[in-house]
Each structure stands twice: as structure tokens, then as C-alpha cells.
Amino acid sequence: MTDLSARSDAALAGTDTLLSVDGLCAGYGASQVLDHVSFSMGVESVCIIGRNGMGKTTLCNALTGLLRPTAGTVTLGDDRLDGATPEKIAKRGMSYVPQGRRLFPSLTVDEHLAMLAKGTRGKRWTPDAVYELFPRLAQRRRNGGAELSGGEQQMLAVGRALLLNGRIVVMDEPSEGLAPTIVDSLIDAVHRLVDEGVAVLVVEQNLRAATEIAERQLVMVSGRLDAETTATELRADPELQRRYLGVDA
Ligand SMILES: Nc1ncnc2c1ncn2[C@@H]1O[C@H](COP(=O)(O)OP(=O)(O)OP(=O)(O)O)[C@@H](O)[C@H]1O
């Protein structure tokens, strides 16, 4: 385990920094939740783990503009994102798959993707490319959001985020409530994205999903990101699992 404050960018040697977060603070009214969160990542998959209520969703919201940071910076490539609206942040290359998927029950899969298809011509991610990544979704293309299983909804939520053709995708607990085989598809999709040059930052509380999605595991405790561990360490250590994920040995 590493103390993040002692960690330098040298730890990312071999990986150029894509996202850099420095001293990020955010909260709700007078209650500060994020307490000077700092980390950086390249084109790789990274997990943010932590027990309930530690501030993981708040971090996702502060990164993607749904919550305005009160201090600190978020830099993607050469662009400063902090303080920008969610629309601007998405346009600059950070897309978000929020917890709960937020789909429209009456729109079909095709219609969800069509809403974002404009502007994807000639780009890597088009509706057809999403159907190729998730063949299950292609079979359900004419079904409405309300008729999809949890796993299909999650695939659609990821597919929608991909159509923004961004540089990084932030996902909040994508494995929540999904059957193990569907979790496998999501894990494969994350690895494929990274292989194709898209960074993926995933909040996870599920031990298997977290450790298979990323080797780097950043630990959030009470709004602070002050430790980093690895999937290898986490798998091997029930005490870490209990402390960081609330998993009972
Ligand atoms: N809209 C809100 N207004 C006020 N407080 C909030 C709001 N959303 C979250 N909080 C508080 O902020 C803290 C962090 O919550 P957050 O949802 O970010 O944690 P989390 O690590 O994502 O947990 P979980 O996995 O349970 O969602 C909690 O104390 C929570 O009660």
C-alpha cells in the first residue's frame, strides 16, 4: 500500500498523464465532502474504492461538472475542466455513466443511441460500433428502456457515454446489481476501451469487479484519497477488503 501524498508522477512512468486532479474540494452547502483530493492517471483503467458514504459519487459528480468544486483543479490533457458545465466537460472529452443509469423508459435502445449519433460519423464510436461491443444490446435494439434487464440498461448507459467519443469515461458503480456474466462483459468492455486509447475511471464497491477492472486502486476514506493499493494486494488481503470495501472475510 502506498501513501498517496508520497507518490510522485514518477509512479506513472511509462504512462503520460491524461487526467490530473489537484486539491479538489466539493460538498453540499456547508458540508464539505471532498477534502483536497489529488491523483493523476494516464490512458489506463483506475478504480476508486471505499465504503458507503465515503464520497465516491461526490467525486464523480465534481469531476463531471454536476457538482461545482469549491477548490482545486481538474485538468484533462491541456484543458482545465473545473468550474465548467457538464455539457462543456463532456465536449472536452470526459463522459459519465452515472449510478442508476438514467435512461428514458419509453425510448428504445435505438432511439437512445440515435439522440447522440449526430456528429459521430467518421469517429470511432457510432451506434453500430456500440452494437458490435455489446451484441446483446443489438438484439434488443427495438426494446424500450423499461423492458431492458439491469445489465442491458448498463450496457446502454456505457454505449451512450461512448458516443461522445471522449478521452476518458467515468463510471459510478457499473457492476451494481448485475449478474456475474454481465459483469464479465463490462470488464471486457473496459479493457477494450483502454486498449483503444480511452481512459476509464471506475468507482467500485464490488471486490471482483474492482480487482478485474484495474490494477491501480485508489482508496477513498472520508472524502480523502490518501492511499493507493493494487488489485493484487487487495485480492490477497481480507483485512484490506474489510477496511476498504466493507467486505466481511
Ligand atoms: N445531495 C446531497 N446532499 C447532502 N449530502 C449529500 C448529498 N449526496 C451525498 N451526500 C453526503 O455526502 C457524503 C458522501 O456521499 P457519496 O454518495 O459521495 O458517497 P459514496 O462513497 O458514493 O457512497 P455510496 O456508495 O453509498 O453512494 C455522505 O455523507 C452523503 O450523505
UniProtKB/TrEMBL annotation:
Record field: transmembrane: none
Domain ABC transporter: 19-247
Record carries keyword Transport: yes
Keyword annotations: Amino-acid transport, ATP-binding, Nucleotide-binding, Transport
SUPFAM superfamilies in the cross-refs: P-loop containing nucleoside triphosphate hydrolases
GO molecular function, one term: ATP binding
Family: Belongs to the ABC transporter superfamily.
Protein name from the UniProt record: Amino acid/amide ABC transporter ATP-binding protein 2 (HAAT family)
Gene source species: Ilumatobacter fluminis
